[in-house]
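FAQ: What does a multi-protein file look like?

Like this. Sequence, then tokens, then the next protein.
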Amino acid sequence: MGPAARLAALLAVLAFRAGDPAEVAARGDTFSALTSVARALAPERRLLGLLRRYLRGEEARLRDLTRFYHKVLSLHEDSATPVSNPLLAFTLIKRLQSDWKNVVHSLEASENIRALKDGYERVEQDLPAFEDLEGAARALMRLQDVYMLNVKGLARGVFQRVTGSAVTDLYSPRRLFSLTGDDCFQVGKVAYDMGDYYHAIPWLEEAVSLFRGSYGEWKTEDEASLEDALDHLAFAYFQAGNVLCALNLSREFLLYSPDNKRVARNVLKYEKLLAESPNQAVAETVMQRPNVPHLQTRDTYEGLCQTLGSQPTHYRIPSLYCSYETSSSPYLLLQPVRKEVIHLEPYVVLYHDFVSDAEAQTIRGLAEPWLQRSVVASGEKQLPVEYRISKSAWLKDTVDPVLVTLDHRIAALTGLDVQPPYAEYLQVVNYGIGGHYEPHFDHATSPSSPLYRMNSGNRVATFMIYLSSVEAGGATAFIYGNFSVPVVKNAALFWWNLHRSGEGDGDTLHAACPVLWPTSGYTSMDRNSADPAARDLKTKVLAERSWRSPLAFQRSQKSKTRISGTIPGNFAAECCW
């Protein structure tokens, strides 16, 4: 199912799920959908309120301690204060026997911190889990890879691509937000714990650099220190084969923590290795980026995300044109759709302003309470995977009249029956931090696919609607077609997944590029129609479509797609935001 660029994206394929919306929204990963990330602001606001009350209590306590301090100090500074004064003598003895004990053992400080801790424990269940921190860190590494971002630039809040001596600004935020040494350390440690030293080293290097610059400063919120960063970076370099760097960093570590016996043993080990193999001291280590998903098309995919591929301009190819489309449907005569033919093989069309801002907002609002982590088929199971990071919901058209209107518009434009069981429900998908969907087909490529076992038919076409825009990234890349389509708010992208013979079109391999910078997230909406009929009936339907070219099918409504109550396979409609 598919498609598109989207960090905060909603795939609107209409299916309703049972259960309490609040419980459904609570499940899944916070980092995988921008709406979930935005909801995390609420508990932090509650924590800010708790901290504000704690600070006020502590300020009052410290004011009182300051008062006591100055009261006693004034007595000691007045050399004329006679101890012979029985009143002063009494208060001196009272202070030393009682007042100082009350000050030192005051419960006010512990009561203040206890209130803060109790409040935190009440909010804790609404906070992101450690898995979210790992997912968010991997998302930064994904953006770093796909868009060739410079880690030093990211740490300064700048999104720059560095290739050799060339520096390209990919996006310039209105407000720069820099990372701390502890922030960079946490990203590097996630990679380090996975044994991914290719990513760990630049992030840990930046952490070391930032910690060095602020050494001696104490920050309550930091979990790591310069020593932690040096320790991890040294071992990462050793694992990567750079023994000399590991030795130098370990020696620096011992300057700050000379009693650490483990690191001292490491120094002896590194010195011995270099003595036995002097060439290691001058050898330059070249680290290979891990290809975790084992993508054969990774370079093409990432290249298309960074540029618009080889997408031709319209004036060079007359077959690529813009027009007002009615599909000979009375429904569209008074309000034709603005059509732009993007590509011929595969045949991909973009319909501009297919939904209004109000409709897009309604769809997002309907889907948001039901969002769950997106899954893919893995044998008999549906599992969340690293190569698809998003949350999705399914909506029936009975949920709201806007969805009924949308169905009518899609059917009038495409000639496809978008009602179940001939079509899937509308799926709405919201993409999170670095949200993406690596190269995939929307149609089934194996007879063992659940689509066949459910007798639902293969997916004939995909209709994807962008419910919001993005500032950078998020294109839909067609890998073998070698072109990509940037996100166009409220537009719909349409393509055929199957050839006229019913065989899958291999050129429709596509991917949702990671969203580098969303506006408020964006949504794409997918619509798929299904054929629940038996195999022989399905063949008849496919045969009917086989004499129709995709372009002719777009322009003609004379031949209906339904035969004996079926349509050619399955039709998918998707919304993202």
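And here is the next protein:
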Amino acid sequence: MWGPPARGAALLRRALRRGLVPGRSKRTVCGGSEKAWVRPSGFDTGVVTFNSLSKKKEPLILARDRVATWYSCGPTVYDQAHLGHACSYVRFDILQRVLSRCFGVVVVHAMVITDIDDKIIQRSWQENVSPAVISRMYEEEFKKDMLSLKVIPPAVYLRVTENVHRIVAFIEGIIRNGNAYATKEGDVYFDVQSIGDRYGRFTGATGSHGEQGSSIKRDPRDFALWKKSKPREPYWESPWGPGRPGWHIECSTIASHIFGNQLDIHSGGVDLAFPHHENEMAQSEAYHQCRQWANYFLHSGHLHLKGSSEKMSKSLKNYITIKDFLQSHSASEFRMFCLLTKYRSAIDYGAGSMAEARASLETIRTFMEAAEAYMRGQLRCSPVQEAFLWERLLEAKSSVLKALADDFDTPRAVGALMNMIYHGNCQLQPVAVADEAACSPAVFGAMVTFIREMLEVFGVDLVQDKEADVSSRSGSLQAVVEQLTRFRSEVREFALARQDSPSSGSSGKPGLYPDRAPLLKACDTLRNDLAPLGVLIKDRGSTSTWEIKGDQESRIQTRTDGAEIL
């Protein structure tokens, strides 16, 4: 679960630095002005991944044996998280699961929570509460959303506001190394010219792109490390006067606090590559005086609403919150939606793409249920081609592993699974009479086991989805039965209404309207027809009760002058 930040960070840092994880490879600390990526030495995971630093696929080599240090940019907590956020976090959660469970790598993941920012301050003004109230509320909402999506929590998360003293010290180190300068106004800027042509490793970092700020910046590309305080804004004391951290410096400081001067993997959305990740690298390498602070940058593609070229974002007001999404879809459906595209690709969200994800899960579920029925002897089939299915299983295992080792190619891995399922379904053709001696349950057991293992790797839980679906359907059934019983009671009450005096020559019950007798008979027929279906209706005078067999909750419907459901 999401543990206390301070203690979790201390324990994690202590474990890494005292050697409580497998051995660490040597690292060359050097200067130089080259932008070229340097392949690290260490443990080769057997995975190749697209590295945004080299702009091509590279072998994933870790500094420590079977341990990956992984830092990700967390949320700025001023509002509810939406599907654009979910897409990035779920995709990287899948990558971490694959790396851990398929390739035996322990992933040590740290994440920052940005709990002080212009947007948080503005929201606090709107709500007339402190920024801390806003940030804590939406931080907890974010964590709940991630757990709902089955995202494994990081080993540690750290809030910016609890690390300002470290940020100040980090900035002081950059200034001492000659890579930053303070202004007379009380701001501190990173000096981009001081690192030569090493700035600009991500697309978009060249030219005169820069932050708006003081007119006395030395270069338009210089960016803020420390911002002087403004009226009504939170501030912290510093050697340059009261103020608060710039955006980029928080990640460099916190990642360095946990992992030191070497980081294996840094992840985030593609929109963060520039300027955020570019500036992170610049200030981190300036502080540590090294050539390559992070060895791999992995970037996920944007999520778009179907038919729109714009990414889903709060600023564009084109977002769907995670909570709203989960009202009509399951976490497993969203995960399958993510699995069907490469993590680096842009992804279109719409009814069609969600229907495809749901259909894929249903195909898997249907096959597993049929295979289990076959193994129990409840599904009779013609003799299966057992050797052929064993070959398809081995082929699927090999193809899935190769796909995942090739830049975590989940669409190809899912395709290999679905191909195996197709061949299995072809063999599970029901027949009226079958030779039980020719039954081959073992191969289907192996196929089902492999599917379960891979679904667990991907974080897909068909059992929980089925239970939720059954629960939802049970609730719907109860509502239908309740309305049906209410209608029947009204009809029955109408049929049982008595006349002031019996009709002459009537063969019906005294005082009843003879022409309403068929309605009573229809009510009895309905009650009798529902009983075999598990819906029991009991009539006691003007009172009707009903219950669904196997349901923990029964309903009592009473008809007097009005209707009351208890």
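Q: Is there any per-entry metadata?
A: Some entries carry free-text notes. For the entry above: The two ends are 39 Å apart (CA to CA).
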